[in-house]
Amino acid sequence: MALWTSEEAAKATGGRATQAFDISGVSIDTRTIQPGDLFVALKDVRDGHEFVAQALDKGAAAALVSRIPEGVTADAPLLIVDEVLPALERLGAAARARMTGKVIGVTGSVGKTSTKEMLRAILSGQGKTHAAEASYNNHWGVPLTLARMPADTDFAVIEIGMNHPGEIAPLAKLARPDVAMITTVAPAHMAAFESLEGIAREKSDIFKGLVPGGVAVFNGDLEVSDILAAAWDGDTIRFGEDEACAAQLTSVELSDGATQGSAVIDTTHLEFRLSTAGRHFAANAVGCLAVAYALGLDLEKAAADLVLWAPPEGRGAREQVQLAVGAPVDLIDDAFNANPTSMAAALEVLAKAEPHDTGRRIAILGDMLELGEKERAIHEGLAALPWFAAVDAVHCVGPLMRALYDALPAERCGVWFETAKDAVPALQTLVGPGDVVLVKGSKGSKVSLLVDALRELGQVPQQTDER
């Protein structure tokens, strides 16, 4: 069965199909396009119209365009519209309108993508579930995720992000979630917001998209939880460790590579296990169980299925790198993003990890970006985190991390590097057999270069998460 016929797509977008075609998927990237996809010629760094001919050569069923591109004949399979991005938004809206299942929207300063994947894990056992494969949470990612959604989807998980005020509400109104979840509100993107309260108000705008009778699920352990509660006058569920939370995390125990948790959802007592370590993961797991409760699903099965989840690459995923000699290095890849909240959570995971043989706990920390005018003080303040006491060496990358480096006691200080690129040649001397190595920083700090370089020191990485 086609995802979209040319007639359906033309009606949804208000465009004109040059010929009849059936679409099995939707793509914006010729590098990953599959036969049968509709190629959407978005304009970014380069104009997607430049790649239409290549997309069709690779087997695209058609291309969504605003003009006939150079090198493409007028009788090629095209869906011609006035503007491409608004047309993609209309296609996403049409996908949402024809779907009779439930939509879950997820936002938050930390943990959106990990939580989206947790929800995928627990919802897939209770119905046909759709979610983006990557972190598609912006002005083109949300409509793209919706446009890819099959009509017979039972549950769709839509991740919604923001960098600046005013971004979340229109995306939430496009997705029209039945349940909307806010993982947490933390001092991220402070360069664009005056205060944590401002971030909370922007995050709470996800509730503006809730359908009538929808349920708002949010973290109840925050200073700004009351701001979130006030943003929706319908049903709400708080999750967290606070006794006032209807979905309460009653206990959490971290071990090397696993998390054991207990929760009470309304009056139901549940035990769950995660195949990775992280107190922050346990809190979001309870939020996911609150979503399952709001949807009227089998909570026992949802709790049991949490063990199927593992964090995505760059967000706490753990793997082994076998060096040429000696015990393997355990790599904790948390290089996709960073703010003070997630930094503390990642360092706790490292502190609980058990090195091999005579190995050490090593932290390689990159700059936390978009924190506003207090950024240097925030970096310096990390030195007070108790988890550093269990870390053998802290290597810092970037001009902001110099503030942390200078504040650490001498016995913890490793080496400071101006850039991640500068640190790459030194990795062989910083990391040794048996070590557990955490690499964490904002994406812009480019510490992912160090993750790649660590992998290259060894052979094929082996996943250590229990599945």
Automatic annotation (TrEMBL):
The keyword Transferase does not apply. One of its GO terms (cellular component) is cytoplasm. Residues 327-442 form the Mur ligase C-terminal domain. The keyword Ribonucleoprotein does not apply. It is found in: Cytoplasm. Keywords: ATP-binding, Cell cycle, Cell division, Cell shape, Cell wall biogenesis/degradation, Cytoplasm, Ligase, Nucleotide-binding, Peptidoglycan synthesis. It comes from the Bacteria. Its EC number is 6.3.2.10. Residues 23-91 form the Mur ligase N-terminal catalytic domain. SUPFAM superfamilies: MurD-like peptide ligases, catalytic domain, MurD-like peptide ligases, peptide-binding domain, MurE/MurF N-terminal domain. InterPro entries: Mur-like_cat_sf (IPR036565), Mur_ligase_C (IPR004101), Mur_ligase_C_dom_sf (IPR036615), Mur_ligase_cen (IPR013221), Mur_ligase_N (IPR000713), MurCDEF_CellWall_CoF430Synth (IPR051046), MurE/MurF_N (IPR035911), UDP-N-AcMur_synth (IPR005863). One of its GO terms (molecular function) is ATP binding. It is an enzyme of class 6 (ligase). It catalyses: D-alanyl-D-alanine + UDP-N-acetyl-alpha-D-muramoyl-L-alanyl-gamma-D-glutamyl-meso-2,6-diaminopimelate + ATP = UDP-N-acetyl-alpha-D-muramoyl-L-alanyl-gamma-D-glutamyl-meso-2,6-diaminopimeloyl-D-alanyl-D-alanine + ADP + phosphate + H(+). GO terms for biological process: cell division; cell wall organization; peptidoglycan biosynthetic process; regulation of cell shape. Belongs to the MurCDEF family. MurF subfamily. Involved in cell wall formation. Catalyzes the final step in the synthesis of UDP-N-acetylmuramoyl-pentapeptide, the precursor of murein. This is UDP-N-acetylmuramoyl-tripeptide--D-alanyl-D-alanine ligase. It comes from Celeribacter ethanolicus. The lineage of its organism: Bacteria, Pseudomonadati, Pseudomonadota, Alphaproteobacteria, Rhodobacterales.
